Amino acid sequence: MELLTDVPLVGRVLRASTTGFECGTRSSDLDEPRFGAFVQARRRSDSTVIIGLIYAIRVDDDPLVRQLIMANNINTATIRDQRENRMVPVEISVITVGCMEDGVPIYALPPRPPLSLDPVYLCDDAMLYTFTQHFDFFRLVLQAANVPSEELLAAALRLAAAVRPRGEQTAYLIRAGQRLAQLLSADLPRLNHVLRLIRPA
Questions:
Q1: pLDDT tens digits, residue range 70-108?
Q2: CA distances from 66 to 59, 60, 61, 63, 86 (A)
Q3: H helix runs in 22-148, sequence order
Q4: For 134, what's the count of Cα atoms within 13 Å in the CB-facing half-sphere?
Q5: pTM of the predicted structure, to 2 decimals
Q6: Lower Cβ count inside 10 Å, N or C end of the chain?
């Protein structure tokens, strides 16, 4: 499988299950991925594209960082060297929200997770637009354990709205809110919280 060249590489898979995966990268490569971003993991052995949402980004420390924190004064050059030249590990956690088969979205868990060292990319605008045409991935996010599901879903919807023409963005968020009202009708505090987060400006 060849690396994609037209979308940013987020990192490579460290560990995975059918419900999600973690990928690793370096702190110097941490410009593109953000909380709520849609990512794609591609298995080497088949054509399934696994779609997920970034729900956590953790920057690990190392012995040098611990020593620098104890110093009275840290100059700018030292901080820049630590961030840009040293390979500080970053771990990105992703919840799986579906997959794509031959360009067709499937809003269910994939039959197999990605494998260790499989590349993880950001979804480009076209893939993001296609995958978020329907809201069937909401259930996987809202039912996920140990995930800030309301904030995650709101961040994802704001990104999904942003790839649409300006005249469609508010209507898209309204439709999303209507679907959320159906799913969370028995949990009004939770529903109101999500609706506040996605309310158009």
A1: 666 776 776 666 666 555 678 999 999 999 998 899 999
A2: 13, 11, 7, 5, 14
A3: 63-70, 76-84, 125-131, 138-142
A4: 10
A5: 0.86
A6: C
